[in-house]
Amino acid sequence: MLLTRRFSSALARSPLLPRSLPPPRAVPATPPAPRPPPRRLMSSSSSGWHHSSRPPPPPPSGADKDQLFRGLEAALGTTFSSEPLAPPPQPMILVISGPSGVGKDAVIQRLQEEREGMHFVVTATSRAKRPGEVDGKDYYFVTKEEFLTMIERKELLEYALVYGEYKGIPKQQIRDYMAKGYDIVLRVDIQGAATLREILGESAIFIFLVAESEEALVKRLIHRKTETSDMLLVRVATAREEVKRMNNFDYVVVNSEGNLEGAVKQVESIIDAEKAKVHKRTVNI
Ligand SMILES: Nc1ncnc2c1ncn2[C@@H]1O[C@H](COP(=O)(O)OP(=O)(O)OP(=O)(O)O)[C@@H](O)[C@H]1O
Ligand SMILES: Nc1nc2c(ncn2[C@@H]2O[C@H](COP(=O)(O)O)[C@@H](O)[C@H]2O)c(=O)[nH]1
Predict the structure, then answer these.
(1) Full residue range of the structural domain in which residue 98 is found
(2) What is the CATH number of the domain that holds 128?
């Protein structure tokens, strides 16, 4: 009330106020009775138009707006700051996991093409390079001995034996990119996601990628033609167990046949929603 009165009288006194604007109304001593909620505007064909008895005042001109702005500043006794009102976004860690063949790499590749400011961590592996794979892009291909040295030196945030081969996440890569303000994307198998949950807790976002059905997943893996039938059997049997661990994740995204774009969009929506959170996750690696 006091502020309103100060404001009204300061506005009335202010030489900056445009003359054409009506003088500020007196503040009533007692608060007015609550008004009924405003009715929604309805179409002109219906009988529900809500007419105000007075026409709205004409919009102020550019100069008037400027004067009003300065008048408000004078009334409050401070200038209006142009500093952002929302806190700056913090770099975040996104963990994308799911059964083998579900499309993790495919989704990540599209995300990489779509979004800037994200770093997709290249993990290290002792597995042999597949045709078409590039060292430093798909993986850092190292020998088993080199991998064991990385473990010894505590260079890996997480590592695991995946289908008989070592896979692990270089810590320094995450630190370097987070320091530059990048968001981090990690692609791991389900056991890797469980380990990362223990290390990172709620500070990272965990997304479980699934196919629309087991049948679709198996067909996708067969179609990829990267595994022998024995290896396929292991991956498919593992996938059956892995789907049961969905509850440890924050989000589930369905990557259905022929709709890779839909899955990518959904992951993007998750990122956007997380960025808009008031209470943000803070990461410390
Ligand atoms: N929505 C989709 N519809 C059809 N095919 C897809 C879709 N998403 C991915 N694929 C294809 O499915 C195969 C498996 O995808 P991808 O290699 O990305 O899986 P992954 O989860 O990374 O597997 P892994 O864990 O074994 O590395 C690839 O041939 C890919 O092109
Ligand atoms: N736990 C970890 N899993 C990883 C890591 N890097 C990749 N992966 C996962 O391994 C499987 C098999 O990969 P493939 O290239 O041999 O088909 C797949 O699910 C990857 O996501 C890692 O650093 N840690």
Answers:
(1) 91-274
(2) 3.40.50.300
Report residue 95 as tokens.
Answer: 């963990």
Tokens 């500020």, residue located: 24
Q: Is 258 in the pocket of ligand 1 (CB under 6 A)?
A: yes
In a domain? residue 86: no
The best mutation among 95, 96, 97, 105 to test binding of ligand 1, ranked by most ligand atoms within 8 Å of the C-beta, falls on 105
Residue 104, annotated ligand binder? Answer: yes
The token pair at 99 is 């059964």
Q: Is residue 153 part of a domain?
A: yes
Which residue, judged by its Cα, is nearest atom 2 of ligand 2? 188
Say if residue 257 is exposed, middle or buried (CB neighbours under 10 Å; 0-12, 13-18, 19+): middle
Whole-prediction pTM? 0.81
Q: Atom 9, ligand 1: which residue's CA is nearest?
A: 103
Q: Complex ipTM, two decimals?
A: 0.97
Please list the active-site residues.
130, 224, 235
Instruction: Compute the mean pLDDT over every residue in the chain, rounded to the nearest whole number.
Output: 86
Indicate which residue's Cα is closest to atom 25 of ligand 1.
100
Q: What is the pLDDT of residue 35?
A: 52
Q: Please state the atom number of ligand 2 nearest to the C-alpha of residue 139.
A: 6
Q: How far apart are CA 107 and CA 187, in angstroms?
A: 10
CA of 230 to the centre of ligand 2 (A): 18
pLDDT band at 281 (very low <50, low <70, confident <90, very high): confident
Cβ 95 vs Cβ 188: under 8 Å: yes
pLDDT in tens, 120-138: 999 999 999 999 999 999 9
The residue type of 284 is: N
pLDDT digit string, tens, across residues 226-259: 889 999 999 999 999 999 999 999 999 999 999 9
Domain count, the chain: 1
